[in-house]
Amino acid sequence: MAYDHSRKIGNQGDIVKHALLHNCVLHLVQKLASDSSFVYAESHTGRACYILPEGGEWKHGLGLLSSKSNDARSVHSRIEEYFRSSLSSRMKVGQQYFGSSNIVFRCLRSTSHRFRFELHETDVHAYDDLKRYYAPWLSDICLHNHDGYEGLSGLTSATLVLIDPPSLEVQKIVNCIRRLQEKNISYICWTPRNSSSNGNKQESQAHAEFGQRIDLGNHIAVKWAEPSGAAQHTFGCRLTVSDDLKDIAEETTQQLTTLLREDGWRQG
User: Fold this and answer.
1) Cβ contacts of residue 170 below 8 Å, gap of 6+?
2) DSSP for 146-182?
């Protein structure tokens, strides 16, 4: 069965990933020459837009973040900027929630830069939804209904790549990051931190070993209060970023975990 992210939208891992993605795009735009195009690629795209469902995991991520007061968020500029761009106070059932490609799309539409997207999605229903959503911009947004790892390996250049697999596929991720490093392409890789048993916050050996791979880039680990996911195995996530994104990644995740510290979040 194809992976369906719909029941997980807006969960703890999503807000970590999306806050960082938003800030990295703005950071790279500032460095981009005025006559250059921003090229964005993604390995596992999902849908461009979701509707927040009854139940689901979003109340423990997005719901928690949106419950913070304006004054509390305003102290953390990176989080506030992402929040104002993509979210609203007191998010509720039935509201729209933007997927990662749409967060980047909205950032770039507000600039004067040209852009090109290379989006990969294996699920045919999510792929068809992407085609409908981005129909007016398909001259600039290329959609591929096949394996994202394979697609990313064929990139010759890009401004930013997001590797966002539904699970820790170590060898595929390693191969992909190495190709990006060879081509000097900036990247963000999001992976879950899973335990070996229900409700346990002791990271499994495979996930811990992945976080020790210094050849893959800079690892930034985040933990949240309660294990999540269908099997209650996921207690955090890990961001692996290229050297040029290290500072912005650390600053963004530090601000997020500081804002949510009273709710049991921490970096590390």
Assistant:
1) 206, 210
2) S-HHHHHHT-S--SEEEE--SS--HHHHHHHHHHHHH
Which two tokens mark 82?
Answer: 């992402």
Task: Return the sign of the alpha-carbon dihedral for residues 82, 91, 141, 181.
Answer: positive
Are the C-beta atoms of residues 207 and 169 closer than 8 Å to each other? no
What integer is the mean pLDDT of 63-67? 92
Q: What is the pLDDT of residues 126-183, one digit of tens each?
A: 999 999 999 999 999 999 999 999 999 889 999 999 999 988 899 999 999 999 999 9
| pTM, rounded to two decimals | 0.94
User: CA–CA separation, 46 vs 258, rounded Å?
Assistant: 29
Q: How far apart are the first and last CA of the chain?
A: 33
100-109 and 12-31 are packed helices; what angle lies between their axes, rounded to 10 degrees?
Answer: 30
